[in-house]
């Protein structure tokens, strides 16, 4: 992945965050309306309220969802309610982890890094010991071989 602004040479990643709930993130093929609409429809019940930025790929979602838009060129938050700040926080933490802890991430493994960061984000208010115990319970009885890990 390249540093800096712009999409050239970068993987597209989408995220959804339920306020007061969890976050989901995954690699997507592109940021077209078809892909973004499909992602929202898979994860969000019709009639829910969506808070999005002004990306053109979200246009047309208003027929199934209540949608409020924050255009970051003009504002970050409106009426203390309409914002994407929680998800922006997730992206910030993810970027710091990828650039600082892992340094280099292959796009083939990016979904695994996204899952790890989503877990960390969901569990951020807990204690380290509780988070460690929950993690151990999730791996009990599971085995991951090297060939499964690298997809061969």
Query: Roughly how much helix do the residues carry, as a percent range?
Result: 25-40%
The shape is: globular
- What name is given to the CATH topology? Nucleotidyltransferase, domain 5
CATH architecture: 2-Layer Sandwich
What is the count of structural domains?
A: 1
Work out the strand percent. 15-25%
Series of secondary-structure elements, N-terminal to C-terminal = EEHEEEEHHHH
Counting DSSP H or I runs of 4 or more residues, the number of helices is 5
Spatial order of strands in the largest sheet: 1-2
**Rg measurement, Å:** 17 Å
Provide the structure class: alpha+beta
In round numbers, the mean pLDDT is: 89
CATH class: Alpha Beta
| N-to-C CA distance | 23 Å
What does this structure look like?
The protein has five helices and six strands; from the N terminus they run ββαββββαααα. With 152 residues, it is of the alpha+beta class. Helix 2 packs across helix 3 (110-122). The strands form three sheets. Strands 1-2 form a two-stranded antiparallel sheet. A two-stranded parallel sheet has the order 3-4. Strands 5-6 form a two-stranded antiparallel ribbon. The two termini are 23 Å apart. The mean pLDDT is 89. The radius of gyration is 17 Å and the shape is globular. Helices cover 39% and strands 17% of the residues. A hairpin with a 3-residue loop joins strand 5 (77-78) and strand 6. The protein has one domain: Nucleotidyltransferase, domain 5 (2-Layer Sandwich).
SSE arrangement:
Blueprint: E1 12-17, E2 23-28, H1 33-43, E3 49-53, E4 66-70, E5 77-78, E6 82-83, H2 85-102, H3 110-122, H4 128-139, H5 146-150
Parallel strand pairs: 3-4
Antiparallel strand pairs: 1-2, 5-6
Helix pairs in contact: 2-3
């Amino acid at each position: 992945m390249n540093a800096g602004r712009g999409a050239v040479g970068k993987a597209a990643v989408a995220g959804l965050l339920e306020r007061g709930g969890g976050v989901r993130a995954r690699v997507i093929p592109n940021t077209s309306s078809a892909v973004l609409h499909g992602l929202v429809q898979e994860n969000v019940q019709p009639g829910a309220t969506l808070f999005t930025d002004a990306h053109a790929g979200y246009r047309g979602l208003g027929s199934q969802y209540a949608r409020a838009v924050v255009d970051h060129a003009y504002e970050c938050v409106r009426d203390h309610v309409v914002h994407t700040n929680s998800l922006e926080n997730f992206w910030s933490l993810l970027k710091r982890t990828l650039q600082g802890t892992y340094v280099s991430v292959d796009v083939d493994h990016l979904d695994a890094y996204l899952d790890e960061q989503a877990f960390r984000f969901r569990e951020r208010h807990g204690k380290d010991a509780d988070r460690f115990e929950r993690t151990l319970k999730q791996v009990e009885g599971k085995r991951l071989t090297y060939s499964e890990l690298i997809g061969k």
